[in-house]
Amino acid sequence: MDTGRREALLRAMLDELVAKGYRGLSVEAAIRAARVSLAEFEADFGSKDECLYAAYQSLADRFVARASARCDAAEPWPERVRTGLSALLEELAGEPRLALALTRAFPGIGPATYERYVDLLERFVPLMEEGRAYSEVEEELPGEVELLAVGAAEAIIFSEVDAGRAGRLPTMLPEILFSVLVPFMGPERAADEMRSAAAAT
Amino acid sequence: MAECSAEKGFIATAVEDVLARANVPRESFESHFNSTEDCASAAFNKLASEMLATLSIAQESAAAKGNPTVPIKAVLEMLAARPAFSHLGLIGFRQGGTRRMYEAYDSAARVLALMMERALQESGDPGPSYAHARAALGGAEALLRRELAAGRAATLPSLLPDFVYAALVPFVGQREALRQAIEAAGGAAEEDDGHRAT
After folding, report:
1. A147 reaches B (C-beta below 8 A)
2. Which of B3, B95, B175, B183 has the most A C-beta neighbours within 10 Å, making it the best mutation to test the interface with A?
């Protein structure tokens, strides 16, 4: 299967999942939409689950890549977080169905798929580690502070996507940025960054 | 119900699974519940009621002792003692169930955020807001869910300093949040020593 049709199939599987849920998902409908034969599907994936996992992996890679791609390493860390977050929010806003697949439809299938969602969140943790250098206290910050920052952003993103409001996520950049920065920089400096982001949008 | 859902996911849990796990006849299940969703909702309501009761008692104690970390510790211990219920409530209801289940989860999270906002207002903090409380809860929830998904509910109380820091930092700043987190860690260590000595 060539790359273009493979991508179309993975997309069609996620569309089916969002539209019909895991139990209602029809592999036949997905392969029809992607113009892929059953033989090709079986040769590449073998099963509905294997194809779904591949689709989710590809989707997660895409969102993580978009969040990291526009970050200029020369910029100070808070600005890189803002740029990456902005790119991620634009991406989610532009693809609300894929955003639902990413946050709810796939992770909700069961413990094994939920584990992939936790893995996805953990992929953002290394991008946060540099934030420790911006702390205003000398003592080491708690061990899980990076995940706390990622989780605060995820909570807002999740509830907007789930409510069908993914399209407004880019306008929420300032408050989401505040949530991410506050564990590393404290409320005053995080609020400064929030105001700066609001002025720039 | 909660155990089956934690193991297989809510979607894959059938009434038969619940009957076999609880060792009850179908008639007994049907006399109480119309569906697995109905049964899960009863489990969720039980967890939410226990959490609110735990919080209410702990907040009184926190006010009396002047220690705002008491409710956080109490909730972590409660969740650690009920791993399957916690898994169903925090993961199943949020991401693994029906729309109605998510709405129940979302309502409970909003109540918690409002309680947190009110508690901080009563403590005299000048600038607490609902949005800050929701953000603080969001970080804590991500940590809770990671531990529950990995089957590590028992370790939750040991992460008290992280939860204290997450809950307080948007409101009181890094220095005070970290001071409270370190104090909470010290208190937990003292309790451990006390348990070992007895």
Report:
1. yes
2. B95
Chain B partners within 8 Å of A22 (Cβ): 11
This prediction has a pTM of 0.91
In sequence order, which ranges of A37-172 are alpha helices (DSSP H)? 38-44, 48-69, 77-94, 96-100, 111-123, 125-128, 145-162
In 3-state terms, what secondary structure has residue A74? coil
CA–CA gap between residue B106 and residue B94 (Å, rounded): 8
CB contact under 8 Å between A118 and B165, yes or no, is no
Q: pLDDT tens digits for chain B (198 residues)?
A: 999 999 999 999 999 999 999 999 999 999 999 999 999 999 999 999 998 899 888 888 877 777 878 889 999 999 999 999 999 999 999 998 899 999 999 998 888 888 777 776 665 554 556 667 777 888 999 999 999 999 999 999 999 999 999 988 988 899 999 999 999 888 766 665 655 554
Which of B174-197 are b and which e, b meaning 16 or more Cβ less than 10 Å from the residue's Cβ? beebbbbbbebbebbeeeeeeeee
CA angle in degrees (0–180, nearest 5) for B100-B102-B106? 120
Predicted ipTM? 0.90
CA distances from A60 to A5, A107, A120, A168 (A): 19, 12, 7, 21
Residue A151: closest CA among B162, B97, B58: B162
Least confident of A64-78, A128-142, A184-198, B140-154: A64-78
Contact B91/A at CB under 8 A? yes
Domains identified in chain A and CATH numbers: 3-200 (1.10.357.10)
Mutating which of A17, A144, A147 best tests the B interface, going by the most B Cβ atoms within 10 A?
A144
Query: Measured between CB atoms, does B183 come within 8 Å of chain A?
Result: no
A142 Cβ under 8 Å from any chain B Cβ: yes
**Chain B residue closest in CA terms to A137:** B175
Question: Would an 8 Å CB–CB cutoff place B14 in contact with chain A?
Answer: no
Residue with tokens 């370190």: B182
Give A56-87 pLDDT, tens digit per residue: 999 999 999 988 886 667 889 999 999 999 99
